[in-house]
Design goal:
The complex is a heterodimer of chains A (249) and B (338). Chain A has 249 residues and is α/β, with parallel strands linked by helices. Helix content of chain A is 35%, strand content 25%. Chain A is built from nine helices and ten strands. Chain B has 338 residues and is an all-alpha fold. Chain B has a domain at 40-275. Classes of the chains: A alpha/beta (249), B mainly alpha (338). The structure holds adenosine-5'-triphosphate and magnesium ion.
């Protein structure tokens, strides 16, 4: 098999005396969608934070395209092409859509003013709109404040931002939360489109039909350990639920 | 009529326009009570009061947008004015010329402000003390030291030329007043058009998101507390020019005036919201009320009541706007009138 795009080996993470992850290994290939599932508190978000550079693992290694990496901050991972949509939204509601899309990656006007940090706002408004459009997210106006958007639209912007910047891996922690059926469907199409672009996608959700619908492989976490890692075709709704809850081993 | 309703709606949604209307209404009211109010002398006085308040209020605007608070600005005005006064007295005693002395005094004053700001920044970003407590500490220490250093009285003995600088030269503006206007405009561009401001809004809006986007939030927070201190240092120097001496009571209560100006200007204490133009008008309204009440012979203590009402109105308006109902509220009012 080809070299994995992104990989963690024997990762453990504890918060004081709480062991949130113990000895977790996971591989993802380009153009692959992995479903990461597990009960509340299973350690999914913790694994996401390790993958995205928000937390350093207590033990274990993180490997991107065959090279061992140490993320000191989420920014390190971003620069390397790993984008994350956090469960507890990563948008700044007081800023506009485009300001959010470009947060940390602003474009500047030319010349001296640009060196002083003056922003090319019109250009960012336009490009943000194009980028969101390209990944299949329709947002009314990119100069509108995020606080004026509906919950679903906000989520769409957050996903659109992550997908449009990701060059290698995209991690989506419960992206369909709080979404209506139609918007959730749109998120699933965005995931499929990202896969077509050759990105590795890690999709976390409690909505098992969604997971069964878009993923190639499913990884089940229980109490900080991986209890199953198999192609999606080997699961059905019932067996997946059983594996998550521990009724099936 | 619907045209008027629409216009009322857009004004209610636009804090600046509303503030301008309030200001004009105030000027009209005070003038109608005493026509002396509408004069160059009074406007010159209002602008002289406004200049140092707007300096510290602009620093407070940056801080409040970031989701913090700076309680130390008033006492920083006092301590930096006092330290600058000592340095200028000493230079004058040693026979240095007044221009040179005034320039050194300016830098001493700003450096003192920066030092206080840096202490705030250290406490907040390195030891993780919440801004309210950190700046409460420096506020107490600053005003205490200003009194200890001076024994409570003003420190004079500096260059005589100082006080001439605070005389209005261009309309109601003195030269230092004009410099303050220019500085405020430049800072407005950095807040609203440049990366510096963008990141401060982002931090105040959602610090986690800002950090996740790669913004060095602590470095930015440190910069704004230092900026706030530097501006308070300039205000301390401004009071020195105005009084011709450094008084430990200059800037007394300045933090509350600054916060009031920022809140009246439409910023939210929860962060992420606020504009320089709002703060400029908020500070102007505050100083206009102060002068106006004196001129129409209202007891000075009424000023606090009026300011309290203005703050309450600003907060209510903000609440209404947050719910998206300020325009609805207004258009309902108009409907009833029809
Ligand atoms: N910051 C923290 N401090 C202490 N314990 C934490 C912290 N974050 C998570 N935990 C603990 O680590 C464990 C794993 O939590 P995590 O958030 O990774 O679960 P999850 O699988 O994402 O759950 P959910 O489906 O509810 O989002 C839990 O026992 C949780 O209480
Ligand atoms: Mg979670």
């Amino acid at each position: 098999m080809t070299q994995p795009l992104y990989e963690v080996r024997d990762v453990s993470k504890s918060y004081g005396s709480v062991i949130a992850l113990s000895g977790v290994s996971l591989k993802i290939h380009a153009g692959e969608v992995i479903g990461l599932v597990g009960d509340n508190g299973a350690g999914k978000s913790t694994l996401v934070k390790v993958l995205s550079g928000a937390h350093q693992p207590s033990e274990g290694t993180v490997i991107l395209e065959g090279t061992e990496r140490k993320w000191n901050s989420p920014h390190d991972a971003l620069v390397a092409g790993v984008e994350t949509l956090y469960q507890d939204s990563g948008l700044a509601p007081h800023l506009s859509v485009s300001a959010n899309v470009f947060l940390g990656r602003e474009r500047y006007v030319k010349g001296l003013l640009g060196k002083l940090g003056f922003l090319a706002q019109k250009e960012m408004d336009r490009v943000a709109h194009e980028n969101l459009d390209r990944v299949g997210i329709a947002v009314p106006q990119s100069n509108r404040s995020v606080s004026q958007l509906s919950g679903g639209q906000r989520q769409a912007v957050a996903i659109g931002r992550a997908v449009s910047w990701a060059s290698k891996v995209i991690i989506l922690d419960e992206p369909t939360n709080h979404l209506g059926a139609r918007q959730a469907g749109e998120v699933l199409s965005v995931i499929k489109a990202a896969k077509e672009r050759g990105l590795g996608v890690i999709f976390i959700s409690h909505t098992l039909p969604h997971v069964l619908q878009v993923t190639d492989r499913i990884v089940v976490l229980r109490l900080g350990k991986i209890v199953a890692d198999a192609p999606t075709s080997t699961f059905d709704a019932e067996s997946l639920l059983g594996t998550i809850t521990g009724l099936i081993d | 009529m619907s045209n008027l309703v629409n216009r009322a709606k857009s004004i209610a949604g636009n804090q600046q326009a509303l503030l301008l209307l309030v200001l004009i209404a105030m000027i009209a009211f005070f003038t109608s009570r005493n026509s002396i109010f509408f004069s160059n002398a009074v406007f010159g006085n209002i602008i002289s009061d406004w200049a140092p308040i707007v300096l510290i209020a602009i620093g407070e605007t940056f801080v409040i947008i970031s989701g913090g608070i700076d309680l130390s600005v008033g006492s920083t005005v006092a301590i930096s004015g006092v330290v600058a006064a000592f340095s200028m007295r000493s230079l004058t005693e040693h026979g240095h010329g007044s221009t040179q002395t005034l320039i050194v005094g300016f830098f001493v004053s700003v450096a003192t402000g920066i030092l206080v700001g840096a202490i705030n920044a250290f406490l907040i970003t390195k030891t993780n003390v919440v801004p309210f407590i950190a700046t409460l500490v420096t506020m107490g220490a600053g005003s205490g030291l200003a009194i200890v250093f001076t024994g409570g009285g003003p420190i004079g003995g500096g260059p005589d030329a100082a006080i001439q600088l605070s005389v209005p030269k261009v309309g109601p503006f003195s030269y230092p007043g004009l410099a303050i206007v220019a500085l405020v405009i430049v800072l407005g561009f950095f807040l609203h058009k440049a990366r510096f401001g963008r990141y401060i809004y982002a931090i105040g809006s959602n610090e986690f998101a800002a950090r996740a986007a790669g913004i060095n939030t602590k470095a930015y927070l440190a910069k704004i507390y230092i900026l706030s201190g530097a501006l308070a240092g300039m205000a301390g120097y401004y009071y020195y020019l105005r009084l011709g001496c450094g008084a430990p009571t200059s800037g007394l209560g300045g933090e509350l005036q600054a916060i009031a100006a920022v809140v009246i200007g439409g910023a939210a204490l929860s962060g992420g919201e606020g504009r320089i133009s709002g703060t400029v008008l908020g500070a102007l309204i505050l100083t206009t009320v102060t002068s106006g009440l004196i001129i129409i012979n209202v007891a000075a203590n009424w000023k606090q009541v009026v300011v309290a009402i203005l703050i309450a109105a600003a907060v209510l308006l903000q609440e209404a706007r947050a719910k998206g109902s300020s325009s609805k509220l207004l258009s309902n009012l108009f409907k009833k009138k029809n």
